[in-house]
Amino acid sequence: MVRMSDSVSNSRRSKASLVATVAAVAAATVALAACGSSDSGTTAASSAAAVPSADPNAIKPSLVGMHIEGAEGGAWASAPFGALRIWDNGTGWSQIELEPGVFKWDNLDGVVENATSKGMTDILMVLGTTPEWNAKEVGKDDYPQPGAASAPKDLAAWDNWVTEVATRYQGRINAYQIWNEANLKNFYNGTPEEMAELTKRAYDIIKKIDPNATVVAASPSTRLESSFSKFYPAYLKALGEKGWPVDVFAIHTYPNSKGDPSARGALIKAAQDALTAAGAPDLPLWDTELNYGLAGPGPDFPKQDITGAKAAGWVVRTYIDDLRYGVGRSYWYIWTPKPYDLLGVQAFPGSDAEQGFFALENWVFGASFAGCEENGGAVICNFTKDGAKSIVAWAQTGEVPYTAPEGSQLVCDPLANCQELAAGTAVTLNEIPVRIYLQ
Q1: Which residue, 8, 156, 202, 208, has most beta carbons within 10 Å?
Q2: Among positive and negative, which fits the CA dihedral 283, 284, 290, 296?
Q3: Is the pTM for the entire model greater than 0.85?
Q4: Which residues form the domain of 109?
């Protein structure tokens, strides 16, 4: 961690203003370790490993998952995280089993070896997509290649594929997800019942080979309500009829391009309502892919660029929202070496989002969470770390007045701008969270 006096020398951060308006406080920033700044050369694995805690209920770094562009070739994130999802690394079924019984393991081996070398042990691999040679139908828009969205025509080939993967990576890959965004036709065009059959077959095979491995259900995208409603309840019904052969349920929560973390919260609730309606067992729910600002759906929602303290703040809110909504973890899409135009919040070395992940490491990893309360549009979340109490606060929308509680000493934003703060001081909260340190 860098002291505040060091971080203000960084020209990018020094231009960021404190996002809470604090009246009658010292104008100078205060030197403080653990304010949320970083050295971008720190690897995620070493960051995650550096959060020991005697509290068995302390928040683990695995709350924060990540996708990494180029991980198969040695790329890694400088932001801290605790779980890796392997997707868009050339590791789908259609990209490995190029013809029946012939496997090209290079990319998957590369990701696993890279992750292991970084100390990462929590690795989730997506088992789909279908090779063209086993596709019932081949569509030119299938992702990542024609035929990939099809339900397999030969289920024995699916069984063989799952067997090969689980055997080869036993003890190295600890979690397997059945399919990616199975309610979207360019990812999967089979029926929910067929997806449930793939899930059941994979579950039985994986548990026989590696009983400790976690099986994660196929993830629906929640963004298109009609597509979600058509697929997900039917998939859950079929899973229930097969005895719920999963360890974890999954969703993807990209809001529409104008959506913020509050809009994401509504998507989480919709998925939880569907699980309740289906009588699903009380299993963890993971958000296995998310970002903000992506264009769509439709022409009325152009792509949005989310930068500065807002980008860092939305990263922080995403994962604290997971704690308060009961989402076990979320995998950010995607860490890249340079800006990637598809995304509204960019995560690359030196980006504002990177600072959000370092704020999470300092504010949340290793802390115990005592819940959040909403009052007059303000969200107030309570943490204790290393014996010290703090709150993280923001406004759900707009600006909300707030009074600094008893014991307040310091207020910091996610870009590590800090000011002294006395109890009773009037604070104006907005959508960007701040951390208030308490005596």
Answers
A1: 202
A2: positive
A3: yes
A4: 44-349
